[in-house]
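Before surveying the methods themselves, let us examine one representative protein, written as a sequence plus integers encoding its fold.
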Amino acid sequence: MPKVLYRADGGYPVGTGHILRGLRIAACWIDIAPEYEVLLVAQDNPAVRRFVSEASLPNLRTHFLDHARLTPVPKLDADAFETIATNYAPDIIVVDMLDTPQSDMSRLREMTNTLVTFDDRGPGRLYAHLICNFLVRDPNPSDLPDATWLREGPEYASLPLEFAGVKRGRKEPELVRRVLVSLGGADAAGLTAKVAKELLPVDSIQEVDFVVGAAFCMRDELEAVLSKASWKANLHVAVPSLLPLFNVADLAVVAGGITMHEAACCGVPAIAVCQSIDHQLMVAGWLENAGCMINLGYGEQLSEGELTTAVSVLSEDQQKRQSMSDAGPHICDGRGSMRTAQAIVDRHSFRLD
């Protein structure tokens, strides 16, 4: 029975994507590798506990790090791993913490048969047996050892499992009537209210769905803007899935690497207004080049009226929106979580052969 030690954190300031990726991969293993068991190692956080409880996976256990080791910004800590790994004896260690350091990863490699890392541009990636990237691309693949498998691109985007094979099922309407806005659960930069203000003058809009997380703390500012809107505003807090809202949206205004890929997968024309995280800007640029997104850059640098103009122009260009809608599912098919889970199984099996 292969044992997997999965290291990730969730909540402010790192977001929830790392924890959710781990849960989705564990869920995939129930089907494709039911003998796998997973120990999720994370800093204690209400969001992490809630997601784990809601997932209710029979192959998953959790270990929360000692409070003495907690840090404001989570970091990979080989010292914390050593005791856990000694007691658990993992066959596979998965690190989902971005851009790993060399010193910690070299020690982790000695603790396991197969070392895996995700979205990693750091020097520690050179010690991994498998690298899976969709938020970033490897800075220099030629530097990787021959034994390192590199798997990257939107086909490895760790979307919720219900997105697999989603079909748009309709042509794009003559004008944009309903807009989905999802800019990150916490949205500490206040982009949701800024976007709401930019949407006020767009004449074609009839309804806007705003999605925020439980940690969103700028509700008063948002509601002050919404009180001036001529369109209907719906505020959704901590929704379990964006799929139903994507299905009814004519246009999405999004941030976040996973959410951008979800929009593409669903065939929803999208405008990226990025949080100030470098990989979000890169993802938006790649998807714009692929023809399914318009990238307006970092939201904090957005000039007044810039989004208003972009939405108004796109609303009146049905042909452009149809082209964007058609391009998205060819870029991302929603099966990335399963591909990532299978890649780990394949790499570990290869190590044992």
Notes: The chain has two domains: 3-158+335-352, 166-331. Residues 184 and 256 are 6 Å apart (CA to CA). The chain is about 35% helix and 20% strand. The domain at 3-158+335-352 is CATH 3.40.50.2000 (Rossmann fold).
